[in-house]
Amino acid sequence: MSSKPLWLRAAPFIFVGLWSGGFTAVRLALDYLEPLTMQALRYGIIVVVLAPLALLLRLRVPNRATLRVLVVMGLLIQSLYFAGTNLAQAYGVTAAGLALIIALNPILVALLSPWLAGQHVSLRGWVGLLLGLAGCGTVILSGNAVHVEGWLGLGFALMALAGMVAGTLYEKRHGLPCHPVTTNLVQYAVGLVATLPLAAGTESMHIDWSWGLVGPMAYLIISNSLIATSLLLAMIRAGEAARVASLFFLIPPLAAIIAWVGLGEAMPPIGWAGTALAAAGVALANARKQG
Question: Which pLDDT score, from 0 to 100, does residue 239 have?
Answer without folding.
Answer: 63
